[in-house]
Amino acid sequence: MVHAIWIIMLTAGIITAMFNGRMEDVSEAIFNGAEEAVALCFGLISIMVFWLGMMNIAKKSGLMDIFTRLLKPVAVRLFPDVPPKHPAMGYIMSNMTANLMGLGNAATPMGIKAMKELRQLNNDSEEASRPMVTLMALNTASLTLIPTTVIAIRMNYNSANPAEIVGTTIAATACSTIAAICIDRYFYYRKQKKRKG
């Protein structure tokens, strides 16, 4: 659906430019945008490599295990339908930890693996189970302590203080995570009530 929206917007922009005689501006914007995108990607790669390296150091030093142990009681309460020692729980906690560290790119593979395991728990049903919905809500809202990607973008555009957004990011993602959990629990208990009634 999103790709269809982008195609419609792109087509509408080109047609409008043709009728207004501004095709030269469109061509210039395309080439400038492509050049800027490549420069931005190189800037992001260096920061992502740094933070992925830091995450690897944290993993080998045992810091990730500490995070995982701290998150386990929370994860067990958020995912009551998932057995605590099931592989899905490990992937869920890895996903949550990566999101906490602001490493969305590292969180994605863990989230996909968790979804595969949760689907198996759901007897390979096409319909999303409660834990799958909860994981999607948490992954989308994702409490973030260090917004590495945004810091990288700000550094790439020569921000005077790229890390000044850390406090507001923590506040905003904390609010979005609390809202996601509250909405998820509301529908979960509502469904439970309907089953009983």
UniProtKB/TrEMBL annotation:
What residues does the Nucleoside transporter/FeoB GTPase Gate domain cover? 42-152
Q: Does this UniProt record's set of keywords contain Membrane?
A: yes
Q: Give the record's keywords alphabetically.
A: Membrane, Transmembrane, Transmembrane helix
Give the transmembrane ranges.
6-25, 37-58, 88-112, 133-153, 165-188
> Do the record's keywords include Ribosomal protein?
no
Domain of life, per UniProt, equals: Bacteria
Q: What is this protein called?
A: Spore maturation protein A
Q: Which organism is it from?
A: Alteribacillus persepolensis
